[in-house]
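Would you kindly consider the sequence and fold I have copied below?
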Amino acid sequence: PPGRVGPRLKEREWLKLQPYGELDESRLIDGVVGERLVYRRRGDRAPEPGAPQKLPKRFMFVLDVSASMYRFNSWDRRLERCCQMVTMLMESLDGFQHKISWSLLGHSGDGPDHRLIEFDAPPKNRAERLKIIQTMWAHSQYCYTGDHTLEATQLAIEEVVQKEADDYFVFVLSDASLSRYGIPPEELGRILTQDKRVNAFALFIAGGDEAL
């Protein structure tokens, strides 16, 4: 649960007992008797277990609200499951803004950035959460066909790191219609892994060969 997410942000400090760097004056005698680890250098130290989290983590959820989500919902309930997942996210992250800052954007044939929830502005009550779900459903029902998975993923990877945070995550949800639009999976993989600061994941919810 969000309340147990630990800090990941590393702090710069002097690291002692190093084999190279600046001579540590407190270990001069050790150096005289042959000790090799007598240097210190500036470096990143991972936080201790249980240390307070100083900055929130930044999560970005990239959701497929394309026409195929609505069209094939009667077959495998893909849009319904997507809406259920978003409902669960909104409920579970409520009250943890100090730990997790998050944003929700949809992508479809109309474009790569249909912003549903902005960073640091989550829905405050059930009425606002219901409006998000209704917007997702209506957009999928009336949008043009097409796919902007790559563009939406690229946007998320770039945007999530625009503000300093404890850690960065991007989650991409798609109904896996990549082959239908001639999108090579390798290109999606390249975008997901281009920034080593970002923990990026792709989730495919269609059944059968569509997820290949």
User: Anything to note?
Assistant: Helices lie at 28-32, 67-71, 73-76, 78-93, 126-142, 149-160, 185-192.
